[in-house]
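Chapter review: from sequence to fold.
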Amino acid sequence: MIDPISLTELEFAVSGIFVKRESWARGAAHDYSDHGRQDNLLHYIIDGSRTYQINGHEKILRPGTLIFIPEGTKYRTETRRPTSGIGICFNMHSHNGTPISLQHDVYTVENDASLYQSLFSDMEHTSEMHRSRLHQCTLLLQILDNLLMSLDARSAEGVQLSPAISYLQKHYKKNLPVSVYAAVCHMSESYFRRRFLEYTGMTPLEYRDHLRFTEAKFLLSCGMTVTKTAEQVGFCDASYLRRIFKKRTGHALSEICLPEIV
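The token string follows.
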């Protein structure tokens, strides 16, 4: 078994994607303590609270929490009060078809709701509209990318940068100078820039734009205008959003937002 963070260095594929919004009444329970999960689960809690019991430990998860439970994990979960959320079940394997087995645990990230809520809502919408599997896989990999970044920030190597990454994920719509992010980590700006680039492969502003683009693509897919979307995610105008998107991704924004051919 490998640690989930190792996925950042592996080539892998996802399949068998299933998306569902669910609601549970108080006291609703599911027990996987004997045989474990049969697939990987990503779950975003919209409201209410649920407890997860694994290896004698209990985690209480509330709205805005993202949960990742790898296939084979043995645990029990129960609803403390009426709860709803969006779940994504999927399989993970290498490109030659060999299943990837991750360390068994309930991995959680408590974050700014808008980041994951947008991605999960888009996954749900894509599933309902029966749009292409390629689009679903792209969204799922975006969720995993952000999840792994957050989990990696807890590691020994990322602990110094964790406050800035969390701060960026909560305040990515604000046009703050890099010095603010550096101050959160109690670093000089030059040292922070160097460490952040080495650790994430992106500059702080590139990472902020990455978070903004995720939100922008969701808003555009919901029919919002480019002008309104630019204002909503923190860009000064539609022209600048188009220009910076092209610069960062190599693609025109119109290419991303055109309707898909199913």
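Two observations follow directly from the output. Residues 133-152 form the longest helix (20 residues). The beta strands are 13-24, 29-31, 40-54, 57-61, 65-69, 76-93, 107-110.
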